[in-house]
Model the fold of this input.
Amino acid sequence: MVAGGFFAQRLVRRVVSGIAALLAFFGGVLVLLATAGQGIVSSIFPILLGLVALFGAWWIYASGKALLFPRSRLTISGIVTAGTGVLVYILGFGVDGLLVIAAGILAWLATIL
Done:
């Protein structure tokens, strides 16, 4: 009975972190696609933020599957991803930034589950 609860909790954390990773991935790809038409010199910072969002997606996915310290990893990756999303939103990438912010919030919520 105890083991069933442990595995069910782990499955919910995996599903929520997987959804968060997909949101961060799509947000990062959209930022990179939006900056592709601009000049490389004028869009270095948005390109870096798009790459950080992609790294955050990988980090959230890997943290959701982790057996050792998944909650601390998800908390840190959620904070970094949400912070990146805020910076992306401030730069003017509306929906892209909101996707990355939502991914960070979902990763943080996965730590509670």
